[in-house]
Hints:
Helix content: 25-40%
Strand order of the largest sheet: 1-3-6-4
Number of strands: 6
Strand content: 15-25%
Radius of gyration: 16 Å
Distance between the termini: 10 Å
Number of helices: 6
Structural class: alpha+beta
Amino acid sequence: MIDFEKMEQALSELPLYFYGRIDPKGLEFSDRIRYICGVECPMYNKTWACPPAVGEVPQCKNKCLGYENCLMIGTVAEVQDIANIEETLATRPAHEEVTNTVRDLFREQGVEPYVLSTEACDICQRCAWLDGEPCHHPDRMHPCVESHGINLIPTLEENGLEFQYGENIVTWYSLLFF
């Protein structure tokens, strides 16, 4: 059982611009989002954190809906030029660090959350997926939100949040199911 008062206190001390519990049943799952992975992402079929390794969208949806609760967290970072993809992506590790801290808050309370975040996973130099081996770090690897076909835009709108806050502001979101 999670001590939400203790969790709330710890979350309030982190560099989060947003955190809140959402109902997993309210998430929108779409093959359209997954299609983008296959067409636009260079990590498609290269890591355990991405399709097709994570399973088909219906499987991913069932896994997520197998949890009663979800904590959505968000961070922001400012960059000089949002069109500079290298500069923008350089802000991701800070978000992943916060995501891991929140994951550890759950673990400290005896709960193992299912974490979806921003990464295509870069823990290993070469992903075991490419060699037909199991993931070497399943306790640290987080599939990306989009890999599960989740369209976060409706959830953000329901919570009064923006996906894009300004010309040079990068927003990152993670979902921790429990």
